[in-house]
Amino acid sequence: MPKRVLQGTVISDKTDKTITVKVERRYTHPVMKKTVRRSKHYHAHDENNVAKTGQTVFIEESRPFSKTKTWKLVDDQAAAAEAAGQAPAA
Known about the structure:
Elements: E1 5-12, E2 18-28, E3 35-45, E4 56-61, E5 69-73, H1 77-84
């Protein structure tokens, strides 16, 4: 089974090897028929402390690193370039 990958914005990088990522999803409300935005915060493992506040990053499911940290930062630059619609840097 493939691991889920989410895209979000780093809102905190103050702790060592941990980032907090805000992931926003949009859906149409079943009764009001309006687009609704919902967001959720995830703690992700950042081994080398490379992510900074305000960056858009990809996180994927992983083994539990702590009580609340079960996601890790995707370091693959090709995945980030592909999502941005650019050719990967060779």
